[in-house]
Amino acid sequence: MADFPDGDVDRWRDELETKRAEKDEFFADHPQSPIPPEERDDFDGLDYFDPDPDYRVVATAEVHDDPEVVLMETTADREMRYLRTVTLEFDVEREDEDLEDGTFELAGYQLESPDEEPLFVPFRDKTTGQQSYRGGRYMELAPDRDLETGDEIVVDFNLAYTPFCAYSETFDCPLPPEENWLEITIPAGERFESN
């Protein structure tokens, strides 16, 4: 589990709940919401796993100075070009014997264009297609400076979100490459059971 600012888990939980409420409001009312307009009146908020600090982890970065191109398939059968710029290694520690723990890796990607883009971390886990969207989930990480190998960065799976294409076929979303398929259950972040 990652260290919390001021050691305050309650503050982290409150901030997470505030972000979730803001996102629900965006989905319900905003013109750019992925919820089709005719369905917005019936929308009563996204479905989330309960906040779980065990899935807010510290990852160690391995930065790739000469990033490889990764072609990600999309939900519209296209390919998008990303650069694998970093590999993040992290531990998941669970006291619950029914849930897995161990050391895992996820790759972080950026588009070939500007470096200012946040790190894009698409992934699948054992909830995919059951408790979460069949196309996987996303995280975006915005380090406060350029990462170097050995740096630590917080990865909070409680912020994992469902891509817009889950709600409307008008969106085309990249699918997590196989290297980001985790052999672990991550019951954190957004749920999506209408697969």
Automatic annotation (TrEMBL):
Superkingdom of origin organism: Archaea
Region (Disordered): 20-47
InterPro entries associated with the record: DUF1684 (IPR012467)
Residue runs in coiled coils: none
Protein name (Swiss-Prot/TrEMBL): DUF1684 domain-containing protein
Native species: Natronococcus pandeyae
